[in-house]
Amino acid sequence: MNLFTDFPRSILLAAIAVFAASLLGCEGTVTGTKALTVPLQAEASGAFAPIKITLTPDMSPVALNFRAEQTLAPSEAGKWNRYSAVLSQNGNVRAQGEFNFNYTGSGDTSQGSTEQTQTMMMFTLAESGEFELAIKPIKAIDVTVKNARLEARKNIQVAR
Q1: CA nearest 33: which of 158, 159, 155, 118?
Q2: N or C end of the chain, less CB within 10 A?
């Protein structure tokens, strides 16, 4: 069986496109170096208490990642949380993004990875300073999140 001649070209191209799309955004979690990790405090609303971080232009490009664990809860199979993250400085939005936190297990007792890292945003800094990061849910919380933390990566490689 020859993969390139036995399958219709459109199916092969679609599979390649899906694989390539799955790699987009990975540069925020695997390239560059870890600059800081800060614990996030969950609030009753499903949001996380705003935190302050110091960033400098020599860190650019920067990725802010949401890193957390999930519990074993088969009732959460197929569910996810959707969040909005906003980075501001002196009340002005400097960067923003949206991301999902998916339950990776199945409906039985098996589970995928208990820890996930999701890129919230990637950006370049023009000036140093103290920034505030706010993370809020966009929809109802369906997946239990524990041990949440912010991970900032500096000098990441951005796909062009």
Answers
A1: 155
A2: C
CA 64 – CA 66 distance, rounded (Å)? 7
pLDDT at 93 over 60: yes
Where in 1-156 does DSSP place strands (E)? 33-39, 48-55, 62-70, 80-89, 92-102, 115-123, 129-137, 145-154
Contact (CB, 8 A) for 149 and 68: yes
How far is the C-alpha of 116 from the C-alpha of 100, rounded, in Å?
Answer: 10
Give every CB contact of residue 59 below 8 A, 6+ residues apart in sequence: 35, 125, 152, 154, 155
DSSP 129-152: EEEEEEEEESS---S-EEEEEEEE
pLDDT tens digits for range 17-74:
334 434 445 655 567 899 999 999 999 999 999 999 999 999 999 999 999 998 888 8
- Cα–Cα distance measured from residue 154 to residue 64, given in angstroms and rounded to the nearest whole number: 9
pTM to 2 decimal places = 0.78
